[in-house]
Write a structure and sequence with these properties.
By secondary structure, the protein is α+β, with helices and mostly antiparallel strands. It has three helices and three strands, in the order αβαβαβ. It has one domain: 2-Layer Sandwich (60s Ribosomal Protein L30, Chain: A). The N and C termini lie far apart (28 Å).
């Protein structure tokens, strides 16, 4: 599920992608998890997160050939920590966007 805060951020991306200046922009969504749970569980969770993100963007009128996504599990933490705080875990649970084509 997309959180209210997540939807607000994704809506900003949609607005940029809808502008004439960025009408051909193609995005790749990278989704991540924190390090709790097994590697397999986290990879599946991040894949679901990536798919939800992509589906949300498409549902807002962006063509499906302009956005793809993939889950990376816990393999690329934003914050490296052994005994992570809730805030550190939250920073690692995220989706990032790469511009593939401008």
């Amino acid at each position: 599920n997309i959180t209210e805060q997540g939807a607000e951020e994704l809506d900003k991306l949609v607005e940029v992608m809808k502008t004439e200046e960025h009408k051909d922009m193609v995005i790749f969504a990278k989704s991540h998890t924190d390090n709790r749970g097994s590697d397999r569980y986290n990879l599946n969770l991040s894949d679901r997160r990536a798919k939800s993100t992509v589906q949300y963007i498409i549902s807002k009128g962006i063509a499906k050939d302009r956005i793809t996504g993939q889950g990376f599990g816990e393999s690329e933490p934003k914050v490296v920590c052994d005994d992570c705080s809730e805030e550190e875990h939250a920073q690692n649970r995220r989706s990032e966007f790469l511009i593939v084509k401008k």
